Amino acid sequence: AMIFQEPMSSLNPLIQVGDQILETLLLHKDLGKKAAIDRTLELIDQVGLPTPSLLYKRYPHELSGGQQQRIMIAMGIACEPDLLIADEPTTALDVTIQKQVIELLVSLQEKYQMSLLFITHDLALVGDLADDIAVMYRGEMVETGKTAKVFADPREAYTRGLLACRPPLDKRPVRLLTVSDFVANTLPKIDYTPQPSKSTDEVILEIKGLTKTYAQKKHLFAKPELFHAVDQVDLKVRKGMRLGIVGESGCGKTTLARSIIRLIEPTDGTIIFDGLDITHLSDRDLIPVRRRIQYIFQNPYGALNPRMTIGEILIEPLIIHELGGSKEDRWEAAAKQIESVGLSRSMLQRFPHEFSGGQRQRICIARALMLNPEILVCDECVSALDVSVQAQILNLLQDIQDERGITFIFISHDLAVVKYFSEEVCVMSKGKIVERGAADEIYAHPKHIFTQRLLNAIPKGIPKGALASAPSYY
Question: Is residue 163 located within the same domain as residue 217?
Fold first, then answer.
């Protein structure tokens, strides 16, 4: 069996997720309908999803990215295969669910003597999971061996680069290293003084008692029950700050972000942007507000229209908001913007499918910047990228703030990334903010039990000795 990286492309959008797992069992296992349904519910529970009977009847678009991937994992293990090929199966999962999924895969592998081929860019995860490791670069295996030996004494520059790209939890570098720093054998000098805060005392965004509820039914004739995706959240965001929001998949991070910018309507509460209450503004009145708040989505491929060229995608916001002057002026603005994110203006005539994941995310960033926003909401914008490309995108976002003073709301399930990028962190659990404070303080002295659990779930697979060839901050 195989577990794919992008669940939304693998799940049928017209079929309930439970029936998609059920289909696998009915095709390949000698089970009756009732037994297959019971096994489906058991699989949904095994991969850490709550209320299997409710999840069974949901469609893929009704689940978070992490929940979609867990449905894919349930399908992959349904028939107890001899070989399970897992292609980045935990990329979209938060660390606690990731740990549960890895433990599940390991237990199944041991129970059924199943071979596991695990493909990932997360070397810490490989260190926790794999007996042997093979490192690929440009289509070739450049280094293979026992995992512990490769980590302790990596021979190839590319392997050393992968080990060093991960944001460290104990210190905050000014910039992150990328693989090219090692492959080119030109390591830059890196200082580890604390990054100066760009924030001011002026509050640009304030949220009071924000709530978003959904009605759920356990079955057709059941009384609807309210599910609180976001529950009475209060939040103040200062101008120029980088605020991180971290939590498990399904904890309400994305719902909170989309409610803030009115992509979805909040059930209750107040949203005040730059002194203006935008909670109940009409779509027409929201237009000038949306020009000042832009959003970078988790999946860049899904966020870009496959039928439009990159140039058309970039000038579309200018057309919608009637900005930018003539057609020639708009194209020139698009060319300058694409160059500002490290791509060539010659790429404006190409289509999204012609780019890598990292390049597509740069294009999404360029589009968000076309309107010169004051707030940029980054929703898991590096979660699907390998560690080196992730480091490049984080460095790019930092450069953007240095140049433009933009306020960032940075959402992720990756605690190391959030700590590196954010000066303040909010920890969310079950729709509520359970802890908030300075990033360094929360990571050094977490107070809430949920924050402690998130930190304890971070993979510990890279021993410090594995980074001896990297700069001294490791």
Answer: no
